[in-house]
Amino acid sequence: MATLGNPKNTIEILQKYHFNFQKKFGQNFLINTGVLEGIIDAAQIGKEDFVLEIGPGIGTMTQYLCEAARQVVAVEIDTNLIPILSDTLSGYSNVEVMNADILKVDIQKLAGEYNDGNPIKVVANLPYYITTPIIMGLFESHVPIDSITIMVQKEVADRMQEGPGSKEYGALSLAVQYYAKPEIVLTVPPSCFMPQPKVGSAVIRLTRHEKPPVEVKSEKLMFQVIRASFNQRRKTLANGLNNFGAFSIGKEALQECIEALGVPGNIRGEALSLEQFARLSDLIYEKQNPID
Ligand code: SAM
Prior knowledge:
This protein is an alpha/beta fold. About 40% of the residues lie in helices and about 20% in strands.
């Protein structure tokens, strides 16, 4: 039975193993059963599912995942947590703990081994310092993903959902929305963690699109255009693109592409929608690769 959602049991385990929290690994353990149940519900896990958990900590959410899913693989970077996980997960036969850095794990291989290469569910209370590389790594590597249900810093969750015109809108919003449908399912106050983080948190579910909402000639080029546009937020789009230095056409040609979109020549990147970025990147692509 899942027991660690109860703060008393968490404290007992931490004391038994003389565990010291490591700030560098973003360790804030969940101690609220309502939040844990909310995450499992939001992730829509069934008995047929394979779940990858990133950063199990002492195994609090892992216990819930083991009870809901067919098979769980939990990847934890902190070697000091491995003996604790052997203890707290000893009652479950459907979990594999890997002592590794998630950014170095071949997730494609895991999906092949444990889920016949079918789309997997990812669930995590993420270490906040690497939220963006983890999410982008999962999407850009084209690992088969069904959904990603994750606890992140509240501002980051907001950023993922935002559209043009908002202060929070940026490269992460566009990347997430290109690959998935983002939905904030819970907001979580610092008191639900041990130790308490300084910021509010939120659980967001990213449901992978079967097909991206826009079509582009080159995904790589579109993301370069997006990164270039937000790299210097205060500059106009034309200057931002030109200063980025990744495009083989000059400032005038870039300006022509922007004008061909039918938007003012001095527009800033933060005003463009995903559709407009896709069209702009195709226009740049065509100028960079003229058909003779
Ligand atoms: N899931 C647990 C919970 O909810 O109580 C712990 C969450 S804690 C916010 C983040 C966890 O991720 C920690 O256990 C930390 O050691 C682990 N972690 C940090 N960086 C990691 C990485 N690069 N790869 C795998 N795990 C990592």
